[in-house]
Amino acid sequence: MRPKTKLKIVAIFIIAFFSFLIFKAVDSSLVYYLTVNEVLSEKDKRPRYKQLRVLGIVKAGSILKNSDGSIEFVIEDSGKSLLVKYKGVIPDIFKDGVEAVVEGDLRGSVFNADKLFAKCPTKYEDEKYDKESI
């Protein structure tokens, strides 16, 4: 075999190898962002994703702290609700009525969260600008 042919084969192999590594890295880091309504309505239609990120509002009175340090709570969206189980660091602003984003996987009707994010309330809004007062 000629040296140029060997070099071309090695170059193609290296390009294919690194393309495969990039594809696997991107595929493993994908997280799909859905609402509670979308998760429950498309539960049977969608393929089983590795990770989901779900947005909802924490239902009032649903936060239950377990003895092992985990919590259970319900998030709602458009009249539908989803039970979430989470064990880890709980954000300071996490409470009833807060928008929460949970990341994990859905097993049956229970969402097992690996991460919990609480959205900051919009109490830092700008005052309405009044041109006539200047």
Could you say which overall geometry the principal axes of the C-alpha atoms support?
A: elongated
Order of helices and strands: HEHEEEEEE
Contiguous low-pLDDT stretches (5 residues minimum) are none
Radius of gyration: 23 Å
Q: Specify the helix fraction band.
A: 10-25%
| Beta content | 25-35%
SS field, number of helical segments: 2
* Number of discrete domains: 2
CATH superfamily of the largest domain: Nucleic acid-binding proteins
Report the count of strand segments: 7
CATH C-level class of the largest domain:
Mainly Beta
Distance between the termini: 84 Å
Tell me the CATH architecture of the largest domain: Beta Barrel
Structural class: alpha+beta
The main pleated sheet reads as: 5 strands, mixed, barrel
Nearest-integer average pLDDT: 81
Structure report:
It is a single chain. The chain is α+β, with helices and mostly antiparallel strands and 134 residues long. The protein has two domains: 1-30; 31-118, OB fold (Dihydrolipoamide Acetyltransferase, E2P). 24% of the residues lie in helices and 34% in strands. The protein has two helices and seven strands; from the N terminus they run H-E-H-E-E-E-E-E-E. It has helices spanning 3-28, 36-41, and strands at residues 32-35, 52-58, 64-65, 71-77, 80-86, 99-107, 110-118. Strands 2-4-5-7-6 form a five-stranded mixed beta barrel. A hairpin with a 2-residue loop joins strand 4 (71-77) and strand 5. The radius of gyration is 23 Å and the shape is elongated. The mean pLDDT is 81.
